[in-house]
From TrEMBL:
Belongs to the CFA/CMAS family. Residues 161-423 form the Polyketide synthase-like methyltransferase domain. CDD domains: AdoMet_MTases (cd02440). This is Cyclopropane-fatty-acyl-phospholipid synthase. The keyword Transferase applies. The keyword Cell division does not apply. PANTHER family: CYCLOPROPANE-FATTY-ACYL-PHOSPHOLIPID SYNTHASE. Pfam families: CMAS. Keywords: Lipid metabolism, Methyltransferase, S-adenosyl-L-methionine, Transferase.
Length: 439
């Protein structure tokens, strides 16, 4: 069939009910769409079969990961143009999207075009999902074993790969960017400033005991022990992270002050701690377990101890029961991950007994951080593919770019919530002046 791009453009515009904001280049080298726009490259007919058998975001995601579709041009611009038509990160509702697509395909005006698409797609056999797709688990969410498997899917993909993306800091959470004189000028500086801000909010002092929940590659405990003289325990469910963190700690000569464990927060029984940091970990907890998470951390703290909960948040919905986890993120990035509005997070911390004392929203900082990670990945693309797989590298590039735009568009945010296990006396231990973290 000649002019596959033109026919695909016509069908897409019929289904979407709007002009297609990108060009299409098909496998027959035909092109269609607005001149100068980013180009959606449809490399083969298999891409169409993926969309036919899984209409909506999951079909597109599988086609992207498998390399059946690609973007020629600025990825951020292409995603920004397509976001409002296909998904908005954190608020996607795949089932209604599929139903709308099927209703559109049933309209008499495009039935002929749909038949053309079926003929273009080739054999009516669903393609196998890419190997990078997470194995689907059955049974209750957020059991100890299921959480460990979910964490392994995302984090145990190779420390060398993460070094390329994250840079020397090896911090996989939102950095803290400054403005003007003295502000962070590099990703490494911004990550150091974030870690130091958390240490100051926690009021860390020499000799205190810190627990870092979801310690990653050990950057927080290293900074806290080296700069503030604390004794620290870092826990992670990733064997690869733990191995890497222990080596860093040994190389820094801090093995006598820092312990790294492969352990779930529900398995800690050697409290109390003076302070707890949880940086980019609570997104994995899930709403069914969040009350348990908050109560567990409260019980691990001494009276007067502080918790710094650094967590991504989504916008609240009019009907919270309609919330569905983004299919691409769930299948390829963070299996079983869930986002909650910041108000719910603060409320559940207080229900557990905490006194919430401060909340700092740093949404724009995460957009800047993600753009730096994407730039790192693109600059080391060949090495990233060699260390993982072409599909895995494509997953990381798409998810980080799409999330950067979601932070910029205020679809998701990130907040540092400082909470205190205030003793019965009512003395919080915080300085009277707001945001003076001397304690």
């Amino acid at each position: 069939m000649a002019d596959a791009a033109g026919r695909l453009t016509k069908l897409a515009e019929e289904v979407l009910g709007a002009p297609l904001p990108v060009r299409i280049r098909a496998w027959d080298r035909s092109e269609s769409g607005p001149p100068g726009a980013p180009v959606l490259v449809v490399r083969n007919r298999r891409a169409l079969r993926r969309l036919l058998f899984k209409p909506g975001e999951l079909g597109l995601a599988r086609a992207w990961v498998a390399g059946d579709i690609d973007i020629d041009g600025d990825l951020f611009e292409a995603l920004d143009r397509l976001a409002g038509l296909i998904w908005e990160r954190g608020t996607a509702a795949p089932k209604p999207q599929r139903a709308a697509a099927l209703r559109a395909l049933a309209r008499p005006g495009i039935r002929a075009a749909a038949r053309e698409l079926l003929s273009l797609a080739g054999p009516p056999v669903p393609p196998a999902p890419p190997a990078e797709e997470a194995r689907r688990h059955r049974g209750p969410l957020h059991t100890l074993l299921r959480d460990k498997a979910a964490i392994s899917h995302h984090y145990d993909v190779g420390n060398d790969f993460y070094e390329l993306v994250l840079g020397p800091s090896m911090v996989y959470s939102c950095a803290y960017w400054g403005t003007g004189e003295g502000g962070a000028a590099s990703l490494e500086d911004a990550q150091r400033d974030k870690l130091d801000l958390i240490c100051r909010k926690l009021g860390l002092k020499e000799g205190q005991r810190l627990l870092d929940v979801g310690c990653g590659w050990g950057s927080m405990v290293l900074h806290a022990a080296r700069e503030y003289g604390v004794r620290a325990v870092g826990i992670t469910l990733s064997e690869e992270q733990a191995t890497y963190a222990r080596k860093r700690i040994a190389d820094a000569g801090l093995a006598d002050r820092i312990e790294i464990r492969v352990q779930d927060y529900r398995e800690i029984h050697d409290e109390p701690f003076d302070a707890i940091s949880s940086i980019g970990m609570a997104e994995h907890v899930g709403r069914a377990r969040y009350a348990e998470y908050a109560s567990s951390l409260y019980a691990l703290l001494k009276p007067g101890g502080r918790l710094l909960n650094h967590q991504i948040a989504r916008r609240p919905l009019a009907d919270e029961e309609t919330y569905r986890v983004d299919e691409f993120i769930d299948r390829y990035v963070f299996p079983d991950g869930e986002l909650a509005p910041v108000g719910r997070t603060a409320g559940q911390l207080e229900e557990a007994g905490f006194e919430v004392r401060d909340m700092e929203a740093i949404r724009e900082h995460y957009a800047l951080t993600l753009r730096q990670w994407v730039a790192n990945l693109e600059a080391h693309w060949a090495a990233a593919v060699r260390l993982t797989s072409p599909g895995r590298a494509r997953v990381w590039r798409l998810y980080m770019a799409a999330c950067a735009l979601s932070f910029e568009r205020n679809r998701i945010g990130v907040n540092q919530v400082l909470a205190v296990r205030t003793p019965d006396s009512g003395a919080s231990g915080l300085h009277l002046r707001a945001r003076d973290w001397r304690g």
